[in-house]
Amino acid sequence: MNIQVILLLLLFVTLNSCSLIKSLQHPLDPLSPKEINKIRTIIQNSHLKTLSNLTYHFLDVEEPNKDDVLHWLSSSERKENRFSRRAKVVVIGGRQTHELIVDLSKGLIESNHVHNGHGYPSLTFEELLQASLLSQKDPKFLNSITRRNLNISQVSCLPLTKGWFGEVMSRREVKITCFYRNGTTNIYARPINGITIVFDLESMKVTKYMDRYRAPLPTAEGTEFHARRLEPGPTYPNTTNSKFSIQGNVIRWGDWKFHVAFNSRAGMIISTASIYDSKEKRYRRVLYRGHVSETFVPYMDPTEDWYYRTFMDVGEFGFGKAADSLQPFIDCPGNAKFIDGYLIDALGMPNKLPRAICLFERYSGDVAWRHTEIGVPGKVIRNGEPEVTLVARMIATVGNYDYILDWEFRQTGSITVGVGLTGVLEMKATSYTSTDQITEDVYGTLVAPNTIAVHHDHFVTYYLDLDVNGSENSFVRSSLQTERVRGFPSPRKSYWSIKKKVLKREADAKIRLGSEPAELIMVNPNKKTNVGNPVGYRLITGQPAYSLLADDDYPQMRNAYTKYQVWVTPYNKSERWAGGYYADQSHGLDGLAVWTRRNRRIENEDIVLWYTMGFHHVPCQEDFPIMATLQSSFELRPTNFFDKSTILYKA
Amino acid sequence: MNIQVILLLLLFVTLNSCSLIKSLQHPLDPLSPKEINKIRTIIQNSHLKTLSNLTYHFLDVEEPNKDDVLHWLSSSERKENRFSRRAKVVVIGGRQTHELIVDLSKGLIESNHVHNGHGYPSLTFEELLQASLLSQKDPKFLNSITRRNLNISQVSCLPLTKGWFGEVMSRREVKITCFYRNGTTNIYARPINGITIVFDLESMKVTKYMDRYRAPLPTAEGTEFHARRLEPGPTYPNTTNSKFSIQGNVIRWGDWKFHVAFNSRAGMIISTASIYDSKEKRYRRVLYRGHVSETFVPYMDPTEDWYYRTFMDVGEFGFGKAADSLQPFIDCPGNAKFIDGYLIDALGMPNKLPRAICLFERYSGDVAWRHTEIGVPGKVIRNGEPEVTLVARMIATVGNYDYILDWEFRQTGSITVGVGLTGVLEMKATSYTSTDQITEDVYGTLVAPNTIAVHHDHFVTYYLDLDVNGSENSFVRSSLQTERVRGFPSPRKSYWSIKKKVLKREADAKIRLGSEPAELIMVNPNKKTNVGNPVGYRLITGQPAYSLLADDDYPQMRNAYTKYQVWVTPYNKSERWAGGYYADQSHGLDGLAVWTRRNRRIENEDIVLWYTMGFHHVPCQEDFPIMATLQSSFELRPTNFFDKSTILYKA
């Protein structure tokens, strides 16, 4: 991969002079390689050039003002492309984190804010790779490997973020965990346990080393996984004749129009999604921006080797940085179309990620609607249509885990957001070969001899800036309550009715889902249907899960938002990352749980919905050596948004 | 439809003499037309022939002894086909309900039990049709129609079951509700409200008539729905090259082997599902029988027109009787194969239902598993496979609602059971044309001018006789509990661990799902994996829902099982219908909530899992005039059933 990066670097230096300037389609378009190069040149020519070890940790379009984007979208002068391009860049230089705003048209650094708070920006691929390689050359580590009678050439090391556990002083450090391949490419299956390595990313040195104990090494046998060879085409043909268009980053399909972008932190971002209303003869706004905001993955083993494994995949690593080049016919079906993404390396050079996102029409054999009517004399009237949807997908591989991230658009106006978890479990070595031998808490499942897969959670938190038919929205909790029949005679004694409550402030909208039945609806109180219902979109969730860690536990303090599945905040351009912007070693002083302490008004305001999809993972043997995809999803479903069903044929 | 029935009747009389005798594949095979005719002949020649108005309400294979079926399955002498065929038949004659067991080989009625308890068998299509037609000829009704200035030729009437509301004496009656088509085939959109008609099914007469008030008739405009013309083939081609076989009623696909049958009450029944274990080189049992047991659909309007609408679709009407002939390319994709079903009419004659069940391989673009590994030096190793599943589907249209009922088998050993709700809402006429005018509780949503769609629930209860690797199983609740770190130093303060509880008696296994995190696993305590885990299958549910009606309300007493989503009972051949066998006008004296009062042992016994999937339906305007399919599902997922992942290529 290191060689790959160098090759890509060389390729870009060569290509850059002749790269085509793509005309701007949309203010939220990601930065082009040409723009990235220009930004780097601006920075290299600034006062920052004197800083030691200048490394690039983030670079993307600076979030434009929402009003400006909405004005641009609605303006007929759109073609003139007068939207100024500004970038947000986070660099570390001279051991300080600089947050830069770069104006591309003016060719200058507009502002430079030095981050003095807790936490660090996401790690670069290069420093992770160096930490891994340098750890493996450390004499103490070599000694440990020799004493275990292992061959260093068969060792793979993985740097892991170390979290925060109350330390007053912090350094940019990672913890290194190592594996023995020797006969398998499934490195996670053969952990070399008992060694603690702390690696300092500033000095690029091992700063703490402990060889505490030796655990048996699980066998390589039965750990390998390979795909069978597929025959693309006949076996997995196009499912439908695709009827969507990609113009730059703007996708049109059926009545839908939306923008899709690729970002190093969130991965895929869906923006300015609108749906054409054939009755009103115009596009109506649904979602301004939606993306994964944070992913919290705490492991449930408090021992020395494992306690710190409480990952914030989005903030610490980045779902975009971890995005994988999609495999046609495997990751996406044969009818998929692909969009490339661009990332930067540690030096600020653009790297192309081919096939970062795919889009495909899906026909899974499901039924969009149907009915058979026998109530009309002398007739049996059968009707119905198969369901065809449009899926936008990316996949992030964060170490052992692969996250399949889908946004599925339906002809009904519904959006289903899906997460599929697959990949390899994190495992620890053990002397146990059978559960009969176990009398202590081992914090996981014995999935193979000498192999325990550790209990853990995944909380995938979504930022959902819904703009239901406009920016000013309210969030309504419609509770279903049992009523006794009163006031008139009825053979019935009970029924349920709806108690609607408009949630007025942030504290009202912290919702832990459970058995209490309620509908959660984002409405526009200023826009009514033909019969007077406020237009809305409803959140339909799956089986709910929330974090079970104690409130005073450090990883929970950093991810306090995972105690509730639903939050609503007033829109604020700077509030997008539920676990805080500087997530690496953060202290929980930024993020959703902190912002909402102000308990701001959320009624008839431009508001944002946050939803956390949770998985408690008790591993089982079927998850070894590879996990079958575990799916979950939520749906944003129009609820009195339209005057009537929109799935019928519009002749 | 009446003409259709007559034509089918004629067809069968003609075909019967030359129909082929299909050799018996499986003891659970449904009765063939020849067998049905033989049964009818046996009954007509018995003492029952003297009974007045003999009508057939149920006819199917009498549930064989499980031990006998299992012995037959495992026996090498299977080909000799020595399984005796016995049928269960329910007839009404001389105003009494007779439950007959007919021995086909001996050609005689083995037993005749007269049902003296409460409740009646499911209604026949013919009596429903006659109730509808005769009501429309009633002079009082004709007068009501004339006074409303309506044209009787444009009126459709629908007989509805009337439930039970504490009456001491009961008669086999239905309530008739009528609609005005005149410009639409969507009859439900134009209810003629204010008229109460009670129709006696024994005397075939209107026994109670009240014309109470007149409500405005909603307009026909905008109520019609039609499918667009599809191009089969190019637009919706085969998704995969189907690789499953159908031998009689036995389906083989991948490692799976199961039996599928069609029954007038449950609809589709999946039986003796086993999965081939390539390590053990034998089929291992998973599910003995699985099917919909009952469906409770209470409406939430306590007024005279609506209070009684508390349907038990399976017991009162029958999902098989309501099954629809599947539409190729709409209800099932182009690669589907179909199985016909046989029903009986009121005279005990066989009626063929073409395409009652479809089976198809599904490739929806999802990923079965995948991983990208960059931890092996110098390599980027990408692996994965697309997910292909096998779906067995039927669709029941019970009046206005269409239930799409799927059983999806996965290569992992997982079974996903899905329900899709579509069709037309039940609506009532109102004077309101805008929500602004409404100041009272209208028990529903104004979905169009003068049209309120009434709040209601759907509880679809499944009978799941899991036999995980054998008949003796236990049901385990694995609770996830927050633990404080104690006994050793750790920077972490908390984690969760698993507290496993084997549920010993029926009362322990009445579970209302909520926010309390737990895994529910059916295990075989007598069979361990290679590392000692008990083999199991886990129930993964969706968003939970339970009935909100008061416990002392009559419909709730009849459907008390809907207060908990999960129940476990010891296997008992006669306990299959959660709401009781004689559901029509039942008093709640039979069924799951009654049987379990004995609080029988369920540990290491042959046990049955019951799961209720619930939907609270607050209608919205998008549901009008047709509802887009609302999906829900649960999964039975192998959990330490296999020693390792089974999705990898077995070379």
TrEMBL record, chains A, B:
Keywords: Copper, Disulfide bond, Metal-binding, Oxidoreductase, Signal, TPQ
InterPro entries cross-referenced by the UniProt entry: Cu_Am_Ox_Cu-bd (IPR049947), Cu_amine_oxidase (IPR000269), Cu_amine_oxidase_C (IPR015798), Cu_amine_oxidase_C_sf (IPR036460), Cu_amine_oxidase_N-reg (IPR016182), Cu_amine_oxidase_N2 (IPR015800), Cu_amine_oxidase_N3 (IPR015802)
Protein's UniProt keywords contain Signal: yes
GO molecular function, one term: quinone binding
One Pfam entry name: Cu_amine_oxid
PTM comment: Topaquinone (TPQ) is generated by copper-dependent autoxidation of a specific tyrosyl residue.
Gene Ontology biological process: amine metabolic process; jasmonic acid mediated signaling pathway; protoxylem development; regulation of programmed cell death
Protein's organism: Beta vulgaris subsp. vulgaris
Keyword Phosphoprotein appears in the UniProt entry: no
SUPFAM superfamilies linked: Amine oxidase catalytic domain (SSF49998), Amine oxidase N-terminal region (SSF54416)
Family that this chain belongs to: Belongs to the copper/topaquinone oxidase family.
UniProt-recorded name of the protein: Amine oxidase
Active site (record annotation): 313, 401
Listed EC numbers: 1.4.3.-
Cofactor binding annotation: Contains 1 topaquinone per subunit.
Top-tier EC class: oxidoreductase
Signal sequence region: 1-18
Domain (Copper amine oxidase N3-terminal) ranges: 121-214
Cofactor or coenzyme needed: Cu cation
